[in-house]
Structure formats: structure tokens, C-alpha cells
Design brief:
With 77 residues, the chain is mostly beta strands. It has one domain. 0% of the residues lie in helices and 73% in strands. A hairpin with a 6-residue loop joins strand 2 and strand 3.
Length: 77
Amino acid sequence: MRTYRSESLGMGLTERVGTYLEAFGFTATGPDGAGAGYRNAGVTYLVSGDYQLDARVGVGFNGFSDDYFVGIGTARR
């Protein structure tokens, strides 16, 4: 079983563009008890009231995390 946690802070720059900072991770129960933690930042672009694009870059901050990551995504309501 894993326990997940995420904390984020976002701010609108314009009516359509926003930015955010986030820290997230998980802890695992069991024999290894391994967990991973990450920090990332990104920008969002609101295409319409129901569709958003985003781009992010982040880094892991413990030995069980990836060194870094980048990504793009979409969200639809």
C-alpha cells in the first residue's frame, strides 16, 4: 500500500496563463518502505473554459526519485 501527498501553489499571470510550484511524493508500506519525493514547476494555458495545456519541469529529491523530468500535458473538463 502507498500513501500519496501533494502540495501546490498556483498563480494566474493573465486570464489564460498561469504558473505553479508543486511538491509531491509517496511512501510505501512493506519490507522495503521505499518512497519517492519530487518538486516541479510549470505553466498552464487555458485554451477554452474546458481545455487546458501545460508544460512542467521537475527534479527528484531523494535516492528513490528520478533525477529530473520534463513533460507536457492536457486537461479537459
